[in-house]
Amino acid sequence: MTKRKIFISSVQKEFKDERAALRDFISGDPLCRRYFDCFLFEDIPAQDRRPDAVYTDEVRDCDIYVCLLGNEYGAEDARGSSATEREFREATERGKTRLLFVKNTTEKDRHPKTVKLINRAGNEVIRRRFSNAPELIAQLYAALVQYLEEQCLLQTVPFDAASCRNAVLGDIDEAVVENFLEAARAERKFPLPPRTSAKKLFTHLNLFNNGKLTHAAVLLFCRNPQKFRALLCAEVKCMHFHGTEVQKPIPSYQIYRGTLFEQVDEAVDFVLGKLDRTVTPSKTAIASDVSYEIPKMVIREAIVNAVAHRDYTSNAGVQVMLFSDRLEIWNPGALPEGMTPAALRKAHASVPRNPLISDPLFWARYIERAGTGTIDMIALCKKMKIPEPSFQQRGGQFVLIIRRKKKAPPKARPITQEVQGPSRHQVGTKLAPSRHQVAILQRCRTEKGITSLMQIVGRRDRTKFRDQVLNPLIMAGMIAMTVPEKPKSSKQMYRLTSKGAVYLREMKH
Q1: Global confidence as pTM
Q2: Nearest-angstrom CA–CA distance, 134 and 137
Q3: Where are the extended beta strands (E) located within 131-224?
């Protein structure tokens, strides 16, 4: 976790002892030293720089600006401004968190410019008064605790249950809510009806905290969760390396943001698009059967677990790295207390780090609640005759490693496709839609989302559904996307084209 930097203003002799006391307290208190570093001008070594340039740079780099004001104003520059006033102005212009502390004294003892600065600053921020160093320390400690709570770094409830600052129902994407309801009803018989409002859905899923949207609600259903400061690092970074080590430049590098549903789907597609696969023409449908060198369900389970169980207070994100010999998935956070990597290889209790995130993922059948995910991954790898997954705790990161199949001799090599989409076996010159594709054509007379279409034909594997059913129809020109410039948009719908309508009429006759 990156520490926040505190800049303590004023170089006047008036506050020499108080400044040292604040520094010693912050560096010595167990809570403060975990979250904060303190800067005092007198602590920096001698260097060939103007003092005012040092002040400006340090204020620019800090997170919290602490302003101490008493009687003295300080040495003035050519424009008649003291270092403290210049610092306060810089912190204001930079949008820093400002904490103002004024020493109790009589008005007549203050420098006139100090009085003006106090009045000006007091109109912009809340000021606190102190008489001595212990009082100042107590006031600063209370302000820092409040800062940590506002930044969701220190809280009495889990991160996913804490309210997301400034988030409102207007930020919620109704299309994501609708797709979730469709999927949850189809997969788990979710009790709420399809047209349930976001407010009712969130109430049912406990995604409100005192009437405010929780982080879980925003991560799962907001148009752009990363616009909120506490969720800035809620993303999945996907990298593909041709060798066995991390090397730059990275051949393929994508950062996926958006809702957690979108992050999972796009990260899974990224990995599948880089893996070797065997394509076998089907005798009963126009789409071919596709088998990946690492089971698709293993990849999906690994990525979903990383997203669902990561520590969202960390500035690190989920990392998915595909090497020539293995797939590594890193997520910030440690296993629950008492749980070890070895315990994941046998039956164990399900202890979600973020229960309010895990619950909707369960309803949409992204995860299970029984703690069987890692066991299922091991079983699937055994079935495919590849090494079992490796689970490791490396400091503050949980790492999952899946070994790829060794390359077969040239004559027996599987077909490799770097680009997502239908294989050469999937679209012929003469289209003979399968019964699933006919059902899709019949229901696409009105616009439908992919979740609804999968429901219609009873399919659960999104990637396979795209490859075998949806993409061939698009390539044949029988259905079209409503947002073709953004194929993976959460608002993507599919509609019947004139060519598809002609086919249905001919089929009917």
Answers
A1: 0.58
A2: 5
A3: 208-209, 212-213
SS3 508: helix
For 361, other C-beta atoms within 10 Å of its C-beta total 23
Which tokens is 129 given?
A: 């008064």
Taking 70 as the pLDDT cut, the residues of the chain under it are 1, 10-12, 42-53, 155-156, 281-289, 369-370, 407-432, 508-509
Cα separation values, 181 from 168, 196, 414, 462, Å = 20, 8, 39, 16
Residue 327 contacts residue 321 (beta carbons within 8 Å): yes
pLDDT, residue 382, reads 92
Structure tokens at 392: 């490791």
Q: What is the pLDDT of residue 283?
A: 62
DSSP state of 466: I
Write out the H or E segment, with its range, that includes residue 391: strand 390-394
Position 273, amino acid: G
* Helices (H) then strands (E): counts for the chain: 18, 17
Q: What is the pLDDT of residues 228-251, one digit of tens each?
A: 999 999 999 999 999 999 988 899
Q: Residues 47, 95, 69, CA angle at the centre, nearest 5°?
A: 65
Rounded CA separation 366/309 (Å): 13
37-62: b (≥16 Cβ within 10 Å) or e: ebbbbeeeeeeeeeeeeebbebbeeb
Q: Indicate the Cα dihedral angle 241, 244, 249, 252, nearest 10°.
A: 0
- Residue in this structure with the two tokens 């973020």, named with its chain if needed: 354
How confident is the model over 157-171, as pLDDT tens digits?
A: 788 998 999 999 999
Residue partners of 60: CB distance under 8 A and separation at least 6: 90, 94
Domains of the chain, first to last: 4-150 (3.40.50.300), 159-231 (no CATH), 236-350+362-403 (3.30.565.60), 435-508 (1.10.10.10)
